[in-house]
Fold:
Amino acid sequence: MKVLIAPDSFKGNLSAPEVCDAIAEGVLRADAGAVARKVPLADGGEGTARAITSAAGGRFVSARVRGPLGKPVDAVFGLINNGRVAALDMASASGIELLKREELNPMKTTSYGTGQLIAAALDTGARELIVGIGGSATNDGGIGMLSALGFRLLDKQGKPLVQGGEALDSIVSIDVGGADPRLKQTRIKVACDVRNPLLGPTGASAVFGPQKGATPEQVAVLDAGLTKLAAAWIQAGLAADVMQNGDGAAGGVGAALRICLDARMESGALLVMRYAGFFDALAHADLVITGEGMSDAQTADGKLCSVVARESRKVGVPVALVSGALGANPAALLKIFDYATSIARGQTSLDAMIRDSRADLSFAAENLIRATRMSAGATRHAATFSR
Structure:
């Protein structure tokens, strides 16, 4: 049996390569003759740059940048195709996992470090960038990122804005004259599966602000601030509108990349799958196993595991979901996957589930392969009996 193992990370617990290793161990325990091909994936969030760079045999570069609250962090990006292409994760510089829960505050957090990371990639000579923008801690409309790249966001006195989402309320205009000239010679792809617009009830602040620590009152302030930013972009002739799909991603960084850096949005899942060699491996697979930390109603709405399932089913390869937990209506997952299970064994706390997750994941994969082999044996027995 040829098994393609293509999971997302179990966020806050196991990286995608670690998930691959655990599943492969279980597969090979159940069937020592199986071929387990590991293709760790991501969907534009944390792990995107690593998945692309590792699959392409590239190298990693570290850059010291400002974290979401201004403290220095060592962010990492990858270089592939002989250094012509750089793969970056916004999460590495401005990510939510860089902060403790009590530190989350989108009024203060900034995307400045993401701009510094882009500049560091340009310093290497790369002129094509793949930017994953999932997992951010920010709701600043990308003004931090733009400031780091030479754009000037100005208040009514013509002074540069301070950083953070709260600064949006003071924006009046944008000066593009000092923007890094290398950006005009750079092609940027944005890996993102979020389709929300910038503003309104389905926009950046309303949908994602609370996840980043915003109170209901702050959500309203942030949305009003993003409205002022949108007006400044339109007044400067940079954009006709800010309600395109994906503009609300990463607290408005999606809009800033599209409008100011002429970036093109792409499905994060499909982009990583292409670069990581998923489709080549799929052509030789008998079974695909994917997984994520939590599977729920959002899984069907374009999340990586559902994209893996869709592409696998297109070519007739069965796909199994091995998830850290199943939420909402788990029966609905069987419309997407041929098999879906949680690895939890009845632990009563999240800490216990996290502690045991690697062993539970390996056992679940072993159990799946045993069931698959048992089913094949039963089919052969039934065919013999019918004769």
Summary: The chain has two domains: 2-39+277-386, 48-268.
